[in-house]
């Protein structure tokens, strides 16, 4: 069955929109924002690094501005921030941690 050109175009537009959204979300990860997320989670640099699959030294470099998170790390940071925000909102609205997480949305 032939695929209409419109269907292909719609798919391409969605992919471009997604790529642009990811680019905007990930470009904002500077040292202050990394530190803010780590503090919100209550993690040490080592615990935060373990959570992201990187080294403590790398987290320190991000926070000091000596380097910036690369593309995959930026995506992980974005996902982690979104997950934390979801749990924080659920806990605030219910007055207790979300079901299945007795620690109030933090993993460590």
Explain what the structure shows.
- The protein is an all-alpha fold.
- The chain has five helices and no strands.
- Helix 2 crosses helix 4.
- The longest helix has 24 residues, at 71-94.
- Residues 98-106 have low confidence and may be disordered.
Summary tags:
single chain, 108 residues, mainly alpha, 69% helix, 0% strand, flat
Lay out the secondary structure:
Blueprint: H1 5-27, H2 31-41, H3 45-52, H4 56-64, H5 71-94
Helix pairs in contact: 1-5, 2-4, 3-4
Number of helices: 5
Radius of gyration: 18 Å
Strand content: under 5%
Number of beta-strand segments: 0
Shape: flat
Mean pLDDT reading: 78
* Largest beta-sheet characterization: none
Helix content: 55-70%
Order of helices and strands: HHHHH
- Head-to-tail CA distance between termini: 52 Å
Low-confidence stretches: 98-106
Q: Which structural class best describes the helix and strand composition?
A: mainly alpha
Question: What's the gist of this structure?
Answer:
With 108 residues, the chain is an all-alpha fold. Helix content is 69%, strand content 0%. It is built from 5 helices and no strands.
């Amino acid at each position: 069955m032939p695929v209409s050109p419109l269907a292909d175009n719609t798919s391409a537009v969605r992919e471009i929109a997604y790529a642009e959204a990811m680019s905007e979300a990930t470009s904002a990860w500077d040292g202050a924002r990394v530190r803010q997320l780590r503090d919100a989670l209550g993690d040490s640099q080592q615990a935060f690094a373990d959570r992201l699959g990187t080294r403590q030294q790398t987290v320190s470099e991000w926070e000091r501005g000596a380097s910036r998170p690369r593309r995959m790390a930026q995506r992980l940071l974005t996902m982690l921030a979104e997950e934390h925000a979801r749990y924080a909102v659920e806990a605030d609205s219910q007055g207790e941690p979300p079901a299945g997480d007795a620690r109030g949305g933090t993993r460590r």
